[in-house]
Design brief:
- The protein has 13 helices and no strands.
- It is mainly α.
- The longest helix has 37 residues.
- The chain is globular.
- Bound molecules: zinc ion (2 copies).
- The site of one zinc ion has 5 residues, from loops.
Length: 299
């Protein structure tokens, strides 16, 4: 019985949740709901659903236990909810102002508003993902930028809350940054709301401690089976699968990684920094006291 439930969850939980979240967002906005408010409610309910699913069908028992990371995750989650709540609307307002200027200069709104909403969402995700892919890859490959992204990879287990475990400066650029091309091209508020819902639901499933088997959809989404390799302690394995939502740009640039002969590691973290600090304050300060963080792991 349990195996049957796990089999079903692994293959259907993510696609069905995503369809339900996007569909309810579109319906509620159509009925006059404010795009931001609707997106916030749908995202909140999705988080609760995924957290409950983790309790019922965990992938790894080891990832269920608080390894001294929960308090820091809550601190970072609250900080990042505030950072995102303020920064994303501001970025969008600035982008809309640029879009308005382009529109008056060239006499046309560049966004294909006449396309069906699903196609507008696909276009928006591919464009937003290019910014996210580039930023994420730079974070891994440029040493001073890695300091800002390392807190995310310092997690020693994967569970739904990891989707918010970022240094606020990392999120401050990556989160709103991906909306800039959409705002500049003139994407509407409902399209932005759908991108927000897609990113949030995808991000939580990507880190959730539940079984996931997407088969050919692993060529579309940057889901948990791929992202668990991105959290490998082996840097050669971790420097792959940079896509936030789609694996599209990893395929284009040759950084997709999904070995078929083995499973992703259960012991995760940063291989050469095993003593990475785990407290909230220490994580916040880690980019600015990097030499100390490195020295503590070398002792
Ligand atoms: Zn990363
Ligand atoms: Zn991650």
């Amino acid at each position: 019985m349990r195996e049957n439930v796990e089999w079903l969850v692994a293959r259907t939980a993510f696609p069905l949740s995503m369809v339900a979240a996007l569909w309810s967002t579109m319906v509620l906005i159509d009925r006059g709901g404010s795009p931001d408010a609707v997106a916030g409610q749908v995202i909140f309910l999705s988080y609760v659903f995924i957290a409950v699913l983790e309790r019922l069908v965990p992938l790894h028992e080891e990832w269920r236990r608080d390894k001294g990371d929960l308090k820091a995750d809550i601190g970072l989650g609250v900080t990042n909810a505030i950072v995102n709540g303020v920064a994303q609307p501001l970025t969008f307002v600035a982008s809309v102002a640029v879009a308005g200027w382009i529109s008056t200069q060239y006499g046309a709104n560049l966004w294909p508003v006449e396309w069906p909403m699903v196609l507008q969402l696909v276009l928006a995700l591919i464009l937003a993902e290019f910014v996210e892919y580039t930023w994420h890859r730079c974070m891994h490959e440029i040493p001073w930028m890695w300091r800002l992204h390392a807190p995310h990879h310092s997690a020693n287990r994967l569970y739904w809350f990891n989707a918010l475990r970022f240094h606020p400066i990392d999120l401050l650029v990556a989160g709103p940054g991906k909306l800039i091309p959409l705002g500049v091209l003139g994407a509407s508020a409902p399209v932005l709301a759908l991108v927000g819902v897609f990113s949030a639901v995808h991000g939580v499933y990507q880190h959730a401690n539940i079984p996931c088997r997407l088969g050919p959809l692993n060529w579309v989404f940057s889901m948990a089976e791929l992202h668990r390799w991105h959290h490998s302690p082996d840097v050669e394995e971790a420097n792959h699968n940079y896509g936030g939502n789609l694996i599209f740009w990893d395929i284009v640039f040759g950084t997709r990684f999904l070995p078929s002969d083995r499973e992703p590691p259960v012991e995760i973290g940063i291989g050469d920094l095993p003593s990475f600090p785990q407290g909230f304050g220490a994580l916040m300060m880690s980019p600015f006291r990097w030499n100390k963080v490195v020295a503590e792991s070398k002792r």
